[in-house]
Amino acid sequence: MSVKINLGAWRSVFAVPSKVVDEGLKFADGVKLKVLLYVLRNSDSELDLNEISKATGVNVTDIPEALDYWVSREVLQKNDSEYAPVDSKKELKSDNDSVEEIKSVETISKDVEEQKQRMVVAKPQKPDYVFTSQRLAVDEDLKILVGEAQTMLGKTLSNSDIATLLMLKDTCGLRLDVILMLIQYCVSIDKGNMRTVEKIGISWADAGINSVEAADNRIAQANHSSKCFSIVSSVFGLKNVGSPTKKQLEYTTKWVGEWKFSPEMLREAYERCVDSKGELKFNYIDGILKKWDAQGIKNMEDLKASESKPKQSAGRKKTSYDINELEKIDTLDFID
Fold this sequence. Notes:
By secondary structure, the protein is mostly helical. The protein has three domains: 88 residues, Arc Repressor Mutant, subunit A (Orthogonal Bundle), CATH 1.10.10; 82 residues, Arc Repressor Mutant, subunit A; 103 residues. It contains 15 helices and two strands. Strand 1 and strand 2 form a beta hairpin. Helix 8 packs parallel to helix 10. It is elongated, with a radius of gyration of 29 Å. The protein starts with 17 loop residues before the first helix and ends in a 29-residue tail after the last helix.
């Protein structure tokens, strides 16, 4: 008795780690998959980036980032410029090569997953021209998204613009209705361009905003912060200051939205800051207003009554947030 198996096309096969499908597929676009499959197919060869580019159609500059993605997914490991499969039995060691205290399997898995999620959202990769065109031809949801976006933005989207939408949809995992809310919000603040849509979209994905309710809350918060900053900038006489920093928005939202200071009190704090420091310092003003809020001073009458009281004797405990202590505050504003 003899047995013969005709493998046909299966005569030439190569292995793909299960982790590629189980963990890496959700956030992998065509660029990443093309590069991985090609290098796995040619695992015994020393490959040149130009060679990979020619075989896959992926731009040379995108190949290292695609390989690094699979390193982050622990499919590959990198040593200088050489890539190799991850050694699952590799021991955990400290900088001095001594064995660290082993964490539980659950803790390690959680830490790795959180790190992966931060990586994916912080630096998503837009798909290339070929992959974007192919997806647009077969993905009905993407067609709808592109059509609605073009209507909202009042222009025909370029392939790069469509790639941005595809990235937000697939790589960042935002729902279609959330992306459309995002575009409408950008248009409403006169920043109806794909660069702003991409920036805010990535920040939403990073914050886990992927429902209409969550998006609506984030937009309401943004509008509230913008309104608070507008009130403060008007009181301070700021003109053509551009977009406020994250820290400035935190300050102004706290002063107006949380502490409920009136324009009159904001102006008083501003003038005291300029008199003392010679210029506008947000963190110095924050120190003044923080003291007033702690003492329940909310208007000029409260302030005058407080400052007309006799000063405490040297032997008594100093009041928190002494105005003299503000001189010790770092003179540099926080910059994002």
